[in-house]
Amino acid sequence: MSHLMDSITPVGNGTGRGDAPVTIRTARLDDAAGLLRLMRAVDDETPFMIYAKGERSLSVEDTRNLLVEAGLVRGLALFVAQVGPELAGYTLAVSGGLARTRHCVRISALAVRRRWWRQGLGRAMLANVEQWARGMGAQRLELETMAANDAAQGLYESMGFAVEGRRRRAFLVAGAWMDALVMGKLLED
């Protein structure tokens, strides 16, 4: 079963960007530089990433090593959303490695460049991770999102996730405390 979703056309927003086909695929070694640029750009564009603007200290070589690890470790996946030649989003998912947690897949990151927000990329990437998780035999997806990130929470809820808990003062963003919402989705057969 393939976990790649080819030729997804996101809904346009009047800018003409909706006409470009989107490919959700496993990140490759030759994506390292572009992926690092994408990660840093997203960190700079939104307060809802764990890294603050300019804080991500990875090098291209570090990113390449992450991609090698993702390719070698069963249960670790790094996917990118590519629009034309541009990397527009990424997601990182990890399945539990122990007998008691193997049924869980944690979505550690889901990020989209601002110019591609509300075009269907986040939804497509989340659906891709779910398909991958089902292929791994997972029974549960879980993630955390910053409580103030209404757009992300709305997306996750529309995809069947429910709020399962709240971690108070989990983040300090621009001098203000922000809670984290713990969300989960049970994968029915």
TrEMBL record:
**Coiled-coil regions listed:** none
What name appears for this protein in its UniProt entry? Answer: Acetyltransferase, ribosomal protein N-acetylase
Among CDD domains, the record links this protein to: NAT_SF
Annotated N-acetyltransferase domain residues: 22-188
- UniProt keyword annotation of rRNA processing present: no
- Give the span(s) annotated as Disordered: 1-20
Q: Which UniProt keywords apply?
A: Acyltransferase, Ribonucleoprotein, Ribosomal protein, Transferase
Molecular function (GO) terms for this protein are:
acyltransferase activity, transferring groups other than amino-acyl groups
An example Gene Ontology CC term for this record: ribosome
The scientific name of the source species is Desulfocurvibacter africanus PCS
Q: Which InterPro entries match?
A: Acyl_CoA_acyltransferase, Bact_Acetyltransf, GNAT_dom
Question: Which PROSITE patterns does the record cross-reference, listed alphabetically?
Answer: GNAT (PS51186)
* One Pfam family cited in the UniProt record for this chain: Acetyltransf_1
